[in-house]
Write a sequence for this structure.
């Protein structure tokens, strides 16, 4: 007697997805209904659900910063993968070192962090360089990318305090996690003292835009036991496939 191959495949997929946590799903409503805290300075931007996605708009009069943050277990040594869907509808900026949409990860060790910025034709990582323009927060690694024409599915993998970013399966860039300082007199940089924190939205007064966000899923690197279980599941699938190929 053998299990149907579909059941075996489903078993392997279930094992491979063990530990995946959906941090945000537009099907469940707005972020503040799913464990996120909405933050704004001056006037608030708008959050609406459009065609199964969250649309964040920070172009309104008086809107300076607007986004969503939450706590999440982000062990940058053991590692994790963060998958998220994003489309830039429109954006504008007053500085080459700022973008209307950013995704910030503050690791379990808050000195191991990463902020990604999205323009209409480029994605880049924020880095801190003392004495540089814009209070030292400037562009780091980057890659040209059309972020406007369609929703892109991004995958950010972090392990051993290193990161790599891809979009729709295409590698964009990689590097080391950052230590962003909290600067005296700059309330906006206080977030860099936070550990295990995730933010997405507009976190600068120098840029603005309209963006569509799809699901955000966090998957920790499997523990050795989970990895062994996955291999065992795949072995079962292979065995069943061989069995189905034998004459009966």
């Amino acid at each position: 007697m053998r299990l149907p191959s579909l059941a075996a495949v489903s078993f392997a997929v279930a094992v491979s997805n063990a530990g995946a946590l959906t941090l945000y799903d537009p099907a469940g409503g707005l972020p503040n209904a799913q464990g996120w805290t909405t933050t704004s300075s001056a006037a608030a931007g708008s959050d609406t659900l459009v065609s199964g996605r969250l649309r964040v708009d920070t172009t309104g009069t008086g809107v300076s910063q607007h986004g969503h943050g939450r706590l999440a277990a982000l062990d940058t040594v053991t590692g994790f993968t963060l998958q998220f869907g994003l489309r830039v509808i429109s954006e504008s900026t007053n500085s080459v070192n700022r973008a209307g949409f950013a995704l910030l990860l503050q690791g379990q060790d808050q000195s191991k962090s990463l902020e990604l910025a999205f323009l209409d034709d480029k994605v880049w990582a924020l880095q801190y360089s003392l004495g540089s323009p814009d209070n030292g927060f400037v562009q780091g690694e980057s890659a040209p990318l059309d972020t406007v024409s369609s929703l892109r599915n991004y995958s950010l993998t972090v392990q051993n305090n290193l990161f790599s970013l891809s979009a729709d399966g295409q590698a964009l860039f990689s590097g080391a996690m950052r230590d962003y300082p909290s600067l005296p007199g700059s309330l906006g940089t206080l977030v860099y003292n936070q550990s295990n924190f995730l933010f997405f939205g507009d976190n600068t007064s120098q840029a603005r835009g309209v963006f569509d966000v799809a699901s955000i899923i966090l998957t920790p690197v499997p523990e050795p036991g989970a990895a062994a279980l996955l291999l065992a599941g795949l072995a079962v699938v292979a065995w069943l496939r061989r069995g189905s190929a034998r004459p009966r």
Residues 20-222 form a domain with the Jelly Rolls fold (CATH 2.60.120.560). The mean pLDDT is 87. The radius of gyration is 20 Å.
